[in-house]
Task: inverse folding
């Protein structure tokens, strides 16, 4: 049976009475009819029906709270419930960004203290909180790189990214007006010789994720940093994979000049089907003044907004960024403290290595070395037997497990990238391992079963090709005015 | 340790299985120089009870809007939010899921986003909407970049009456591009000067950016805009408050190509401006240049209707440096909240919210017009906010603040020439008593008595 859209549940006129209307003006007397809408085609449904509609939709979704979600590079760890409660406190949720500074002292203090904790963790000099996603953090960081070079009178045109980089890195370089130069990896790491060869005076920065997307630590990071800096470039840290290094190593000590951290990954804030997140940006001392404005400063015991820096790149986002996300991440750091953060990092690495060890007889790890917080397998052997990484991923859904990241990084054939995080217990990891082993057996015994999976999900295998070839992107028509659907 | 479920003995067993003695062994590749020794300046962990006490104390240092009689708007609006909304979006399957890459186990999120896109199309009259962007400012920036990709021209003409926060974001986003921005001033009425706008257009013009209702609250002359700007190769972008579209005609009927803005007024809450999201909708011929996630309707292997992320060839994870944008995470849960808000309020409810806000704003404006010394030089064609002028505006605001009234936003901060201007907003939450309190208090501040009020 086809699930109904909310628009198909329209029951005609209804008074929701959520508010007390006061309608003493007639818009047509002010504006004239040509400006005014005649019909607003929204469905009218009672509250109980709306709630049921969304409850039914919710139950079709896997989530961290209901399922193991080892989606590589996304760090789908448990989202502590106290943080939801705290961010909802009236003092945090009912404040307006244009209130006076003295009415917002708690919020400013929170951001100021949060900044101090992050500086301690990363070795950066300061942070800006406006960037609201990892990609916007990258945009902010690379625009800072651009401003830095411009002020120093050196116009540069290229940004280097490794071939294992997240897609956002090259896309960001383009958005900042740079040409992307891709360097090939060697044994899963930055190839130092390639880097030396490619890093000419036209290169503005190297964007690097460490540990990289193969789950490997760039052990030559100090050499890499030296090459970049000797040639007048800057080193940018994509913090998507910071989780295994929390409390263990500092990006500043590795030589990174500008970094972003994904609060919705490392710092446990929930991802809400794709956001809100936060991709806050930190910088070491000489680059601090390029950070977005306003910055939060402290004078005596008072916190204030500083719009002072003329070198600042401006702001990529209105107001202060996703403030509720900041509250949750701040609470997370306070709760765990220095030992807890380190323990979380270590356990994320342990969980990934445990999976790697238990599965390496069945699935070929992309690299044999120990991994950090995530492990990448290649399903090339399984593919030869008739079931691809996609089929394996889809079959996992029948085991109520969210599939790992597929076909990424691009340099691994038939890749499955597994990031269990530290918040999963051994029983769940063992269950995942057993499921993967059973699926591996099925690639031989019954590949058809995998190819036609999932069998127990809300829907069968979804035809994504059809969706792209014949785009239907919105429901048109409403209730009795129903029209046919258009693209 | 909080949030680590494995027991010490399980951890030991797992370490043994991995062939290492301690977790430190996994980090053997890390150079000594980069390691944190005993010098990590972060306090020890605390209990949940202690955490709650600490953050409660911090939150108490803020003064929430409810402690005031507030008329603050200027891009962040205090509307009533039905209790069912936060209940729905707090469902863990919505709040703790990732981007719905895996369609088969994400149908709930996908259908909800598809419905969101449909809602945005209905409000704006556009054919396609993406699944949300980060905020109104970056949505505008993305719309401008989209225009430049479409017609390969390099000049952007914006109205002075565009929200200054958006101007700042736009300026930031354009830093990496060879695009020039011209700002066209407003007339004495607080409306964009359309003849100057027309004069500014030439063969290099990529797009025109209007905001209506504009930053000063004034509804632009959209009928005239449609008449004057007929060149189809120049894209017309409208920034709008989506709530206003419950009253005003859909922007598509005025010839706009892209409609964008911030969705915060649709059930978004305040959260220091951090509960917003960007929406972006366009005509279908521009679909391939639309940035961000898009959900489409399709079929599953049994021939049943299903939803999935689609047209991903536009996106960074497929196209990398050739992508339309670098956008990855968006503001899905906030967008979903707006869809829930629209579902709860429905046709009649949304109109009531919009019209009540509008009635209240007009009532306040009328009240202020009767106070000597208050100048209302801008157009009376307003939606939910408007600018009033007075001498010594900052001091007047200060006096009102002492009476518990946040009268609005001082626009002199961004517009030197309007150094006496205050932008005041009303939502449906304002009562007549509160509005009268503002009017009377302002008269009292200026004249020391209430003689000028009915």
Result:
């Amino acid at each position: 049976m086809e699930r109904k859209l909310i628009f198909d549940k329209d029951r005609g006129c209804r008074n929701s009475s959520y508010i007390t209307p006061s309608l003493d003006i007639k818009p047509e007397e002010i504006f004239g009819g040509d400006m005014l809408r005649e019909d607003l085609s929204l469905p009218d449904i009672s509250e109980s029906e709306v709630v049921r509609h969304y409850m039914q939709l919710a139950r079709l979704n896997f989530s961290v709270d209901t399922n193991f979600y080892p989606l590589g590079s996304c760090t789908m760890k448990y989202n502590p419930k106290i943080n939801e409660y705290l961010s909802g406190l009236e003092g945090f949720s009912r404040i307006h960004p244009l209130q006076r500074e003295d009415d917002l002292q708690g919020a400013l203090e929170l951001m100021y203290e949060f900044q101090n904790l992050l500086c301690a963790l990363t070795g950066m000099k300061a942070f800006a909180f406006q960037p609201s996603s990892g990609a916007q953090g990258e945009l902010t960081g690379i625009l800072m790189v651009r401003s830095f070079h411009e002020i120093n009178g050196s116009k540069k045109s290229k940004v280097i990214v490794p071939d294992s980089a997240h897609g956002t890195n090259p896309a960001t370089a383009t958005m900042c007006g740079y040409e992307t130069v891709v360097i090939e990896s060697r044994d899963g790491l930055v190839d130092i010789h390639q880097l030396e060869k490619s890093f000419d005076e036209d290169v503005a920065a190297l964007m690097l994720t460490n540990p990289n997307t193969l789950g490997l630590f760039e052990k030559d990071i100090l050499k890499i940093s030296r090459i970049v800096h000797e040639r007048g470039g800057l080193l940018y840290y994509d913090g998507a994979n910071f989780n295994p290094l929390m409390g263990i190593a500092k990006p500043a000590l590795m030589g990174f000049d500008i970094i972003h951290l994904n609060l919705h990954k490392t710092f446990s804030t929930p991802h809400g089907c794709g956001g809100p997140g936060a991709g806050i940006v930190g910088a070491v001392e000489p680059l601090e003044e390029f950070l977005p404005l306003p910055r939060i400063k402290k004078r005596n015991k008072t916190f204030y907004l500083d719009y002072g820096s003329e070198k600042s790149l401006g702001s990529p986002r209105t107001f202060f960024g996703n403030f509720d996300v900041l509250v949750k991440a701040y609470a997370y750091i306070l709760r765990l403290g220095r030992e807890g953060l380190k323990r979380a990092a270590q356990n994320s690495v342990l969980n990934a290595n445990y999976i790697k060890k238990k599965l390496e007889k069945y699935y070929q790890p992309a690299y044999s070395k120990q991994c950090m917080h995530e492990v990448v397998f290649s399903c090339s052997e399984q593919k030869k037997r008739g079931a691809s990484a996609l089929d394996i991923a889809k079959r996992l859904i029948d085991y109520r497990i969210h599939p790992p990241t597929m076909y990424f990084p691009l340099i691994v054939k038939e890749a499955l990238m597994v990031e269990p995080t530290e918040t999963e217990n051994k029983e769940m990891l063992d269950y995942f391992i057993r499921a993967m082993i059973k699926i591996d057996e099925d690639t031989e015994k019954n590949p058809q079963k995998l190819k036609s999976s999932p069998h127990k999900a809300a829907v069968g295998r979804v035809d994504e090709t059809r969706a792209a070839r014949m785009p239907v992107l919105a429901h048109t028509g409403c209730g009795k005015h129903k029209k046919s659907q258009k693209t | 340790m909080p949030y680590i479920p494995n027991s010490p003995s399980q951890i030991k067993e797992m370490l043994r299985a991995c062939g290492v003695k301690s977790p430190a062994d996994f980090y053997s590749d890390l150079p000594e120089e980069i390691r944190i020794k005993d010098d990590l300046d972060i306090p020890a962990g605390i209990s949940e009870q202690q955490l709650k006490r600490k953050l409660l104390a911090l939150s108490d240092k803020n003064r929430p809007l409810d402690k005031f009689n507030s008329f603050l708007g200027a891009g962040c609006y205090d509307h009533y939010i039905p209790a069912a909304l936060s209940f729905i979006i707090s469902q863990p399957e919505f709040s703790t899921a990732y981007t719905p890459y895996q369609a088969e186990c994400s149908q709930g999120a996908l259908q909800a986003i598809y419905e969101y896109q449909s809602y945005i199309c209905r409000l704006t009259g556009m054919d396609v909407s993406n699944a949300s962007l980060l905020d109104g400012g970056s949505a505008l920036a993305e719309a401008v970049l989209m225009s430049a990709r479409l017609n390969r021209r390099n000049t952007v003409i914006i109205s002075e009456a565009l929200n200054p926060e958006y101007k700042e974001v736009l300026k930031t986003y354009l830093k990496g591009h060879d695009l020039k921005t011209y700002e066209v001033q407003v007339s004495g009425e607080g409306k964009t000067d359309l003849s100057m706008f027309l004069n500014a257009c030439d063969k290099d013009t990529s797009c025109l950016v209007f905001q209506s209702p504009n930053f000063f609250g004034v509804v632009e002359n959209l009928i005239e805009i449609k008449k004057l700007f007929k060149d189809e190769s120049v894209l017309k972008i409208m920034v709008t408050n989506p709530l206003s579209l419950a009253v005003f005609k859909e922007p598509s009927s005025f010839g706009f190509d892209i409609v964008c803005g911030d969705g915060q007024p649709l059930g978004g809450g305040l959260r220091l401006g951090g509960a917003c999201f960007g929406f972006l909708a366009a005509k279908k011929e521009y679909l391939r240049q639309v940035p961000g996630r898009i959900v489409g309707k399709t079929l599953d292997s049994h021939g049943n209707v299903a939803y999935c992320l689609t047209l991903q060839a536009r996106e960074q994870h497929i196209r990398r440096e050739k992508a339309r944008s670098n956008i990855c995470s968006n503001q899905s849960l906030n967008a979903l909240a707006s869809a829930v808000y629209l579902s709860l309020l429905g046709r009649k409810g949304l109109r009531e919210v919009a019209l009540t806000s509008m009635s209240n704003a007009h009532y306040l404006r009328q009240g202020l017009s009767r106070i000597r010394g208050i100048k209302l030089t801008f157009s009376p064609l307003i939606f939910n906010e408007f600018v009033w002028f007075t001498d010594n505006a900052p001091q007047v605001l200060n006096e009102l603040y002492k009476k518990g009234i946040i009268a609005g936003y001082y626009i002199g901060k961004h517009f030197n020439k309007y150094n006496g201007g205050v932008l005041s907003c009303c939502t449906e939450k304002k009562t007549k008593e509160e509005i009268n309190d503002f009017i009377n208090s302002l008269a009292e501040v200026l004249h020391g008595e209430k003689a000028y009020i009915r």
Notes: Chain B touches chain A through 204 residues (CB under 8 Å). Chain B is about 35% helix and 15% strand. Residues 164 and 414 of chain B are 7 Å apart (CA to CA). Residues 332-369 of chain B form the longest helix (38 residues).
